[in-house]
Amino acid sequence: MGAQYFNASIETMSPEERTAFQLKALRDLLKYTYARCSGVKEKFDAAGIRPADIRMLEGLQRVPLTTKDELRRLQEKNPPFGGFLSIPMQDVETIYCSPGPIFEPQDPSDAFWARLLKCLHATGVGRGDIITCTLSYHLVPAGLWLHTAARRLGATAVPAGPGNTELQVRILHDLGVTAYIGTPSFLYTLITKAQEMGYDFHKQFRLRKALTTAEMLSPSMRATLESYGVDIIQSYGTADVGLFAYECRHKNGFHMCEETIIEILDPVTKTRLGPGEVGEIVVTTLDVRVYPWIRFATGDLSLYTEEPCPCGRTSNRLVKIVGRVGEAAKIRGMFVHPKQVDEVMSRFPIISRWTVLVTRPGQRDELTLKVELDQGAGDVAQIREGILSKFPELCHLRPDSVEFVPLGSIPDDQVKKVVDKRVWK
Has this prediction a pTM greater than 0.90? Predict the structure, then answer.
């Protein structure tokens, strides 16, 4: 199952063949979406260009970028999708909701699924595997996407989602789970919990394959996980675009899916950078027309290499993800944006100022919410419990702690309200 979605010939194309392949797909995409998506047409018209003006891949640089924040504003102005949906609303199968909120209609085409299948297939998952998917299935797309991809490859899937560690350890053990999908830190949590529960992970579990995503994987974390006999393959993508880069068996970077055009741009000047230079990842999906992504600025920082890979694939590779630009931070696989936190804090009028501190003292992200209260505030314990209850509803994860600090501790002019102090080795 799933074989019909793979086209091995495009993975070994020469640079000239790839350019021709992508240019044709790009021009077809621009022509199609300009005619059907008012949001695309407005961006082109504002820039003074037409699809016919893009005659070479380099011409894509004339198209304005679309950022997450801009997309949110466009959806507020022109709900629900900002003018980027190319099909009638009644033909949309599924709608997801990302932090913002940003609404995302699912593209049902086989072309979209090909990228997801390619990334999961790299782990060796197939018929006979029992796979547990620990990504969220609630509103956001990652869980359902990769669950469906596992089923299309013939595997049996367990929709585990995040949390419930003791139950998840029992699932791994009692069902003889052979493959894992999720963040590397949660896999580490499950292995640690299994050891605490008295299991010998090496001898009593069958888990041997893992696709990790939504979180950075440090060399030390990879070495730790693989010391338990679990072969780790990383993939990279976003909740908006889906997966579009993945490791092969040589684990020397993320192969860029040929169905996308990936640019690395200087975060300040927005000019294209060359191999080895760190910049923001900008992606154009050539295989998606229902809800097209044309020069979508992901906010992630990376660098790429043109060096050949021993696996035979000829695409360039993202070497690694090295950080974020902008206001949002990805914490335990979920984006947290200041506007989301503002909405949580607005429920508590006695809160004067707040800031989010993100650290990583071990192998897990920790989120500390520092809060100033107006003088004469009420029951602090009740306020803390209220914040801990409301925060997951809007931000999809729970703070590790809420600290109340004296008035004046948080500067009025603090530029970043989500402060990321993680260090990636």
Answer: no
